[in-house]
Amino acid sequence: MSPPVPFPRRAPRERFGTEPPPSQRVALVSGANRGLGLEVSRQLAAAGMTVLLGARQLAAGEKAAKALRRAGGDVTAVQLDVTAQADVDALAERIGRDYGRLDVLVNNAGAYFNLDERASSVDLAYVRGALDTNLLGAWRLSEAAIPFMRRHAYGRIVNVSSGCGAIDSEGEDCPAYRVSKAALNSYTRMLAAELKGSGILVNAVCPGWVATDMGGPGGRPVADGAAGIVWAASLPSQGAITGGFFRDRAPIAW
Ligand SMILES: NC(=O)c1ccc[n+]([C@@H]2O[C@H](COP(=O)([O-])OP(=O)(O)OC[C@H]3O[C@@H](n4cnc5c(N)ncnc54)[C@H](OP(=O)(O)O)[C@@H]3O)[C@@H](O)[C@H]2O)c1
């Protein structure tokens, strides 16, 4: 007897939760007391989202949040050093208690951009610091955020990366920063692959060279750099763009 003919295998169905309107979305932005994080918070709030503005110096966060509230945004400062697991845990508990949801996570906090360092001589404590902030900071927060996003089968995770982290980018400066952003890109791809079909989209975004404290003078306006991050944080479920690396909404090489 011939074996039964198997049913044709179907591709797994994308599982979309109802896409919440912006006014129902809760967004968390790390490193948001200044620079790109502050502007991303402003733009997300202007789109109607409730924004948790993460700052490792709460007083600086409160000041920034107050200014955004004055402009009409629903913005609350939260204590968040991305290298402190205790801060992440306390924040996750507060989000569960006060909001019951988290729809958007922008892993923006970043540091250790130093043009004078070289790979042959950089202090490894410095490299460790870069990895702890730029890679593990995003990792810690994502692990805390994903259970909330799974509840509604909806989530947007944006890892603010850099063209400096592209594996074929030229340059011998900023080795700690470059390696940490390359690792963040790798993490982005892995997480996106794992979460495919869950309704949670994960992408890396390079804001370009932006005139912040980190970028220094000469870069482009902060609002322009932030726009590509906000785009990735607001991607529609249809099309399910995930696992990509973008600048100004266009894919760039890893
Ligand atoms: N500017 C550019 O040209 C450029 C280009 C490519 C990528 N990026 C990326 O864009 C992101 C934002 O950069 P930016 O230009 O806005 O830099 P920035 O003006 O120097 O701001 C960095 C922010 O990250 C925060 N931060 C640093 N370490 C932190 C930690 N451990 N926990 C929590 N917050 C921390 C800072 O907080 P404090 O105020 O407490 O220090 C500050 O709010 C970074 O990931 C950066 O790598 C920037």
Short synopsis of the structure:
This protein has 254 residues and is α/β, with parallel strands linked by helices. The protein has helices spanning 35-46, 58-70, 85-98, 124-152, 175-195, 222-233; strands at residues 26-29, 50-55, 74-79, 104-107, 155-160, 200-205, 245-247, 250-251. It has a single domain, classed as NAD(P)-binding Rossmann-like Domain (Rossmann fold, 3-Layer(aba) Sandwich), CATH 3.40.50.720.
Description:
The protein has 254 residues and is an alpha/beta fold. It has a single domain, classed as Rossmann fold (3-Layer(aba) Sandwich). Helix content is 40%, strand content 15%. The protein has an eight-stranded mixed β-sheet with strand order 3-2-1-4-5-6-7-8, sandwiched between helices. Strand 5, helix 5 and strand 6 form a beta-alpha-beta unit. Helix 1 crosses helix 6, helix 3 packs parallel to helix 4 and helix 4 runs parallel beside helix 5.
Backbone CA Rg: 19 Å
**Strand percentage, roughly?**
5-15%
Question: What is the mean pLDDT?
Answer: 94
Low-confidence stretches: 5-14
User: What is the name of the CATH superfamily?
Assistant: NAD(P)-binding Rossmann-like Domain
What's the shape?
Answer: globular
Indicate the CATH architecture: 3-Layer(aba) Sandwich
Structural class, by secondary structure, is alpha/beta
CATH-derived topology: Rossmann fold
